[in-house]
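Provenance

Sequences were taken from public entries as deposited. Structures were produced by running a predictor on each sequence independently, with no templates supplied. The record for Calcitonin gene-related peptide type 1 receptor from Pan troglodytes is shown for reference.
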Amino acid sequence: MEKKCTLYFLVLLPFFMILVTAELEESPEDSIQLGVT
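Predicted structure for Calcitonin gene-related peptide type 1 receptor:
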């Protein structure tokens, strides 16, 4: 069980980091539109 949680964490962490950097580079309005659609 713990190994699965750790695996998901290692996979999702880089994904969220990329998501955050993408939001910082682009304007917030574009990020909101992408999230809605």
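The helical segments are 2-25, 28-36.
The longest helix spans residues 2-25.
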